[in-house]
Predict the structure.
Amino acid sequence: MSELVSARVRSAAGKLGLFHLAETIREYTRWADEGKLGFLDFLDLVLSEESEELAVRDDRRFRDDRRFRQGLRLSRLPHHKTLDEYDFAFQPALDPCKVKDLATLSFVGGKANAALLGPPGVGKTHIAVALAVAACRAGCSIYFTSFDGMVRNLKAAEAAGRLTDKLGAYLRPGVLVVGEVGYQPLERAEANLVFQVISQRYEKGSIILTSNRTFSEWGQVFGDEVLAAAILDRLLHHCEVISINGSSYRLKNCLKVIERDTGVV
Ligand code: ADP
Ligand code: MG
């Protein structure tokens, strides 16, 4: 078969979505030559191989979709927003490339962490969720918890003598999303429980966290500078940090009204 014809067949097969045919055109023609196939038998061979390949691909896609939907259901994410729904123009100080780099999920492959910092309403949770949804799509197990909820659950489990079980829920997922670190200051025993999660996940699984506190304020959050330093040491060793300094998207429409009425924001 001439190069020109095989290139044309490959291109047409690609356009028709017959990617297997596009890749194996040479093999098909070899089989046809060796088996001295007639035109009809050749057509029969190509079409039955292709339909089998499509069925396998559909089945794989179906199983991947089911695993993705099941993963999302178990994740407890508050919503399933994506980066396509994030308006980067609203946060001009945020470099979209930094976020899109994170969305390649290489940090998840490297069991590293991501921290999204900034004031309320700038989209920290939106971006954290979008990254988690992408990780779930890529086959990773994910779990979302608020920081306070995690502390509360671990404390209750410890009191009930079931700490190891409960810790497992925060240690098993490939990606643990922890929302709103630092709303409430912790007692020492609570800070210790957080240390256990962070230190046991260190280099074993990723954490994506959101916080409106800077890392320098973590001493106050954990009520102990030494413990906060030990937690930060493990968390930040492999961590992409994104600070979003801008206005709250929640107040977007309010700001527009103020601007309209006063000419000032
Ligand atoms: P934060 O966690 O920083 O307090 P959220 O992620 O909860 O903020 O965002 C608050 C709401 O505003 C959510 O509904 C979120 O989807 C939306 N939002 C925030 N920033 C943007 C943005 N730049 N583009 C689109 N929606 C946004
Ligand atoms: Mg949030």
Summary: The mean pLDDT is 93. The pocket of adenosine-5'-diphosphate (ligand 1) is lined by residues 81, 85-87, 90-91, 120-126, 210, 249-250 (CB under 6 Å).
